[in-house]
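Q: Could you write out the predicted structure for this multi-component system? I'm mainly interested in how the pieces pack against one another.
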Amino acid sequence: MQLINKKTPVNIKAALTIATSALLGTVSVAGHTQESQKVVEESSWDFDTAFLYYSESDRVSAAEAIINAKKTFENDQVLNLKLTIDSLTGASANGATAQPNVQTFTRPSGKGSYQTQANATPLDDTFKDTRVQLNAQWTQPLAQNYTGSAGVHISKEYDYLSLGLNGNLAYDFNNKNSTFSVGLSYFQDTFEPEGGIPVAFASMPLAYGSEEIDSGSKEAFDATRRTDSDDKTTADIMLGFTQVINRRMLMQFNYSYSKVDGYLSDPFKVLSLVDDNGIAQDYRYENRPDSRVKQSLFAQTKYHFEQNVVDVSYRYMWDDWKLDSHTIDSKLRIPLSNTSYIEPHIRFYQQTAANFYQPFLSQSQEIPEFASADYRIGEMSAYTVGLKYGVKLSDGNDLSFRLEYYRQDPKDAGHQAPGALKNVDLYESVDAIIAQVSYSF
Amino acid sequence: MSVLYYRPHRTSLFKYSVISLAITLASGCSSLGVQPWERDLLAKDEMALTSSPLDAALDDHIYFSKEASSGGKSFGGGGCGCN
């Protein structure tokens, strides 16, 4: 019985090895057990898998699965293939403010509507998406002390396509205790949202095609749409420096420059247009600038104590939307035995608001050039606390579990709330649970 | 006036101090490091800078979707319509 149990992972590995090899055209597909065993010995792919469940209370939940296959060839050439599948369902804040009365919103497709109860933050429950992502990365030594790496990325959702390329060059010196690296990456994304892309600051039209009395028309809906699809490009440069400090410690420093161009608004997000009493008179689609330049400095250190390993990193990010953020992430790996460990994790995050963020539009003021009420670009702090438990199984494979709690606290950056808006929560907190199982074989 | 200039000054001072710290470390690094036979601890999986790549990938996806920052440790580019 035990023998059978021990053999099972090997068979999974053999099957996946054949599948991967067949995809790459390196071996003919053969189902014979002996042959599969032989393939494992010859090529030795390593598989890492993970399944993650993310759930916000009353809002979005997501499930994500990753399988990563890695093979090291002669001369330290490494091929890495990664498949990611995720699925998202649930409700997401649409940007409008809570109100003392029930509110009705048109779904992004224009067909049908949804309602938000009095004093509740409006959530659009239309979201449902499945994404498939493929990554391939090839890494190899180019000359003595030089390592090159190149990769491709493709990601497809129902309404979104992302294609990416990246390249990286690393130079080791000082007896391989120091490494400089430079990396480039480029993404080309196409967004084709349900219902098309709204005209900036157009009024949310009435839903059409239903039996309701005050139903709108398709013509009126289409008049609020600019186009069916739009593009976004992202170009990144990253400079890195890694240094071994001593037998127990190493450090890394990165500088990143990222330029994003194209459609950067969220077609599903609106702003409430309120009167002097804070009562919503209209909902207007948001409008963000069509370019953004982000830069960041990142530092990380790892230190091996007698038993424990501590991992601390800090990131400072700033952009030309006048948004900046600080992130501190720390993990402490504590061995419980020769084969198991626990790893507590704490992360703090804090960001200032983009200069065009505002929680609502006011009738007494002119509509600005850019505005968004998306809390994700507003002032916010967040933290994550979590614990991971990992164990090396008797067959040498790794199994781990991770459970984390994530909380976001959006903040008031000094926007005066008139009348009714004083009595509703404009900056509602978000709580989420993150659960993950990982298995490597 | 001092209020107006306080923030940009502080930000640029911060950037320069981090950059000069990095340069100082880089120039002083030849005295740092270990001999090849002293890499017993550094060679362990848990001492890799990204010791759990899948955890890192999943975290990047979550925080890219929920916050306005991304990247830093690795590329923070596009890839999904989640933000």
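A: Regarding packing and overall arrangement: Confidence is low (pLDDT under 50) at residues 1-6 of chain B.
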